[in-house]
Design a protein that fits this description.
There is one protein chain. By secondary structure, the protein is of the alpha+beta class. It has helices at 17-20, 47-51, 68-94; strands at 6-7, 27-30, 33-36, 57-58. The protein has two domains: 6-58, Alpha-Beta Plaits; 61-94, no CATH class. β2 (27-30) and β3 form a beta hairpin. The radius of gyration is 24 Å and the shape is elongated. The chain starts with 5 loop residues before the first strand and ends with a helix. The mean pLDDT is 80. The structure holds iron/sulfur cluster (2 copies).
Amino acid sequence: MPVMLEIDYDKCTGCGDCVSKCPGQAVSMVEGKPMLARPDNCDYCTNCEEFCPSGAIRAPFEIVMADPGIKGMYTGLMPAVLVLSATSFLTAFVA
Ligand code: SF4
Ligand code: SF4
């Protein structure tokens, strides 16, 4: 999933709070302004947005829907699991 921080440099005062509150050091200061320097380090905690005193940074991360194939596999497996469970129960009960 791509990291998509939005930084409004007109609002940003360069205080550095988003950098100090970022647990993965994904954000760095470059020439007095924050930049997403290490997107792979972002764990989507949203600290940068929460602690920015100027409302200059947003973390509106993309929502990715689950692969519909996984749901199909799940719904296909459930009846088989139920049948096997019932069969095992009846076998044990009868024996
Ligand atoms: S969401 Fe969290 S980990 Fe990602 S850049 Fe912001 S503070 Fe850092
Ligand atoms: S916390 Fe907000 S104002 Fe401070 S450097 Fe980061 S984006 Fe700019």
